[in-house]
Each structure stands twice: as C-alpha cells, then as structure tokens.
Fold this sequence. Notes:
This protein has 122 residues and is mostly helical. The chain has helices spanning 3-27, 37-40, 42-69, 72-90, 95-98, 101-118.
Amino acid sequence: MTLDAWLRLIAFSALVLSAALQGLSASGHFPSEHRAATLRSPAGAAILYGSIAITFASVVIAGMFAWRTLPWYASIIGAGGVLLATPLLLQPFSDSFVNGRSALLVFSGIAAAIALAMLRYI
C-alpha cells in the first residue's frame, strides 16, 4: 500500500475508534434509570441522542470513504483492531468523564471532524 493509502487507513481507523468510544460511553446511559442527573433533563437527552446521531452519520461517511478509497482487507483489519481495543482504551478515562456529557461530546466531535475531512474523498 502507498503512503496515501496508509494515511487514509489511519483516518478511517481513528474515526471507527472515536465512534466506538462514543458508543461505549453512551451505552452506560441506558436504561434511563442509570443516567447521570445532568443527562435526565431535556437538554441532556438532546446531547445524548444528538451525539448518537452525529456519530452514526460519521460512521456512514466513513463507510463510504472506506468503500471508495481503501482495500477491503485493510478496512476490515483496521476497524476490527480498534473495535477490539476500544474497551481497553476507555478504561484510563475517569468515571466522571465517561459517565457525563463530556465523553459524548468529545468522541462524537472527533468523529464528526474526521468525517468532514473524509468528505473530500467521497
């Protein structure tokens, strides 16, 4: 693979990692009885569901990007590797970060930023 293909694979893997971190952070807020008090309000629910929607849209863009610019085997290996590493990479973060709004906003924001950069190649 060329250097350009490696950089695209790294960007794709980074987006999959940020989406998986966001998804794992969001999964701790379901069912609603387990949500932090800040996420039980209407604004908190908007942040929770909005970050999920933004991350989902970013994953769709990443899928189109990978389909058009990466070899299929590289996409599978890159995405699979970061999906396996996600729980281990989330552990060092503090509980207040993961259980609050911050993780949802940070990880979905990273995914959206990478997805916007990927739009250039679709």
